[in-house]
Amino acid sequence: MTASPCAPPLPGPGAAHGRRARGAARALLTWYDAHRRDLPWRRAERARNPYCVWLAEVMLQQTRVAAAAGYYERFLARFPDLASLAEAREADVLALWSGLGYYRRARQLWRAARLVQVQSGGQLPSDYAVLRRLPGIGRYTAGAIASIAFQQPVAAVDGNVRRVMRRYLGREWALRRLETLIADWGRERPGDFNQALMDLGATICLPRSPRCPLCPWRAACRTRGEGETARPAAARRPLTERYALARRAGRIALVQRPAASARMAGLWELPRHRGRGRLLGRLRHAVTISDITAEVYAAHSPAGAIRWASPAECAALPLTGLARKILRRFADTPAARLPG
After folding, report:
1. d(C-alpha 124, C-alpha 134), whole Å
2. Judging by beta carbons within 10 Å of its beta carbon (0-12, 13-18, 19+), is residue 334 exposed, middle or buried?
3. Distance between CA atoms of 39 and 68, rounded to whole angstroms?
4. Measured between alpha carbons, how far is 164 from 107 in angstroms, rounded to an integer?
5. Lower CB count within 10 Å: N or C terminus of the chain?
6. pLDDT in tens, 177-194
7. Which positions ≥6 away from 258 have C-beta within 8 Å?
8. Is the pTM above the cut of 0.85?
9. CATH class given for the domain over 13-214
10. Fold (topology level) of 237-337
């Protein structure tokens, strides 16, 4: 990474309230006020609602904004507040999450809601350290909730933010020191400052081909995106899996993944196809580091502990994303017509 010869020296954490620090914060927030993304969790009635902020941050873990938006609206329609989520059955929460992936997030969200309902009367704590003790809430999520919902001067540092700051400062900083710097720079509007950094990384300071002429920090940026090397993508594993689509009196055969399964425990899917049969078709599905080619066969008597589910039951069950995709392609059920 090379330094821009005209970039002025930048203040460290101890000088965060100096002129340059205030100027950097002001420039970023002015840009954010004019160019912030219009996202469902930023609407006025939700932007300061701790539950709404928390739900958005959990959904956005490992998930693109465009994919999370629809799920966010449907989830809030069903569970509009923390109390309704805490009172729900885990299976109902997973059913609504079906297709979004990384189901551990949904389980931990539900467990944390139940804890908060019992321990805090349904009020999500505003303290960063207390938030960190809840299931599924790590450093970034706790910082986002505390700053956005409660206006606490706490940083929320994810990969995008680290990239922005690494380019701007000219080198990588230790996480704790970087968190201190960001918290100090954004002290006047902590939630907006954190979200401004997120938007800058998502729309301007891109991993490849950053749009430097549009950046509010371009004058003082020490690198202008130069010298950045993208990390090679992790090797993906190709898999072929065979599934049986069996029908009986308008019902479809499903099996439940074991509770002890390492992946998607307790979710429902189509039974595996073991013998011969008519191939209905193939489809592709990506999960974690695997690229799955699913072969779907017509079957009459699939093996295993079968549940024959009606279309309405299919819609209410927590299906795997692949099962939902298969039903969408090869069967006409309410579950098949839901986005996934």
Report:
1. 10
2. middle
3. 10
4. 32
5. N
6. 999 999 999 999 999 999
7. 265
8. no
9. mainly alpha
10. Nucleoside Triphosphate Pyrophosphohydrolase (3.90.79)
Query: What Å distances lie between residue 101 and 96, 132, 217, 267, CA to CA?
Result: 11, 23, 36, 11
Which two structure tokens, joined as six digits, stand for 157?
A: 């540092």
Please indicate whether residue 57 is annotated as part of the active site: yes
- Compute the C-alpha angle 121/127/131, nearest 5°: 70
Neighbours of 201 (CB within 10 A): 21
The distance from CA 254 to its chain's CA centroid, rounded to whole angstroms, is 28
Taking the C-alpha atoms of residue 140 and residue 132, their distance in angstroms, rounded to an integer, is 9
Strands 290-299 and 278-287, how do they pair?
A: antiparallel
Q: At a CB cut-off of 8 Å and minimum separation 6, what does 33 contact?
A: none
User: Model confidence at 18, in pLDDT bands (50, 70, 90)?
Assistant: low
Show the tokens assigned to 306.
């079968």
Distance CA 48, CA 38 (A): 15
Distance of alpha carbon 16 from alpha carbon 182, whole angstroms: 9
pLDDT averaged over every residue in the chain: 87
Q: Is the pLDDT of residue 286 over 90?
A: no
pLDDT of residue 58 exceeding 90: yes
Q: State the amino acid at position 43 in one-letter form.
A: R
Convert 258-284 to b/e letters by CB count within 10 Å (16 or more is b): eeeeeebebbbbbbebeeebeebeebe
57, 90, 269, 313: the active-site residue: 57
Contacts of 291 (CB under 8 A, 6+ apart): 236, 237, 238, 239, 284, 285
Q: What is the residue extent of each domain of the chain? A: 13-214, 237-337
pLDDT tens readout for residues 298-317: 887 776 778 999 988 888 88
